[in-house]
Specification:
Elements (H helix, E strand, L loop, with lengths): L1 H19 L13 E13 L8 E10 L4 E10 L2 E3 L3 E17 L5 E21 L5 E22 L4 E9 L4 E11 L1
């Protein structure tokens, strides 16, 4: 639950900062840039021996320079999942991406692609009794910063609110599947 509380606090702070900042910049081409903030939930797909896939919670925000191109930053953390039956594993990722959205003509549907850099950290601990009855510990600690990206689909409910589903590759040991909603300003 601590991750969910952190997510909600981060969303509230991000919303306040976005509202208090100047929300629109005109580019002289008839389009006004548009900031947005959102929340997402999903599942980490970990490639770590003995680890269950933890539930993911996150916040993200971005800026659309025009209807198709923008930038986005996100933080996604997880709850504790099972690690070798009697321990816990969790994952976190921070990323900054360039985004591209392709809107299907005459619909509110769009495809989304993003490419950027993400830092992902996976940590887990577990203990067990070996054949001699001696308590042993297993642990995993992996941190990876690398090129990351994802593909998704979205639906613009109206001009200020949308929902998205994404599949992201955030590290060599973790993929992320999420659904989210965002509010534009």
């Amino acid at each position: 639950m601590k991750t969910l509380q952190k997510t909600l606090v981060a969303l509230a702070v991000g919303s306040l900062l976005s509202v208090s900042a100047q929300a629109a910049i005109s580019y002289g081409n008839g389009y006004t840039g548009q900031p947005y903030v959102g929340v997402k939930v999903g599942k980490f797909d970990l490639d770590t021996n003995g680890a269950s896939d933890p539930t993911a919670y996150g916040v993200y925000g971005g800026y659309n320079f025009d209807p198709n191109f923008g930038v986005e930053a996100e933080y996604v953390g997880s709850d504790d999942a099972d690690f070798y039956g009697n321990g816990d594993v969790d994952a976190k990722t921070y990323g900054v991406y360039g985004t591209y959205r392709y809107f299907v003509p005459n619909t509110a549907l769009y495809g989304k692609a993003k490419l950027g850099v993400a830092k992902t950290k996976i940590e887990g601990d577990s203990s067990y009794l070996d054949n001699l009855g001696v308590r042993r510990n297993r642990s995993v600690s992996d941190s990876d910063t690398r090129l990351a990206g994802g593909l998704g689909v979205g639906y613009a409910v109206n001009s200020d609110f949308g929902i998205e589903a994404e599949y992201d590759i955030v590290s060599s040991d973790a993929n992320l599947m999420t659904v989210g909603a965002h509010l534009k300003f």
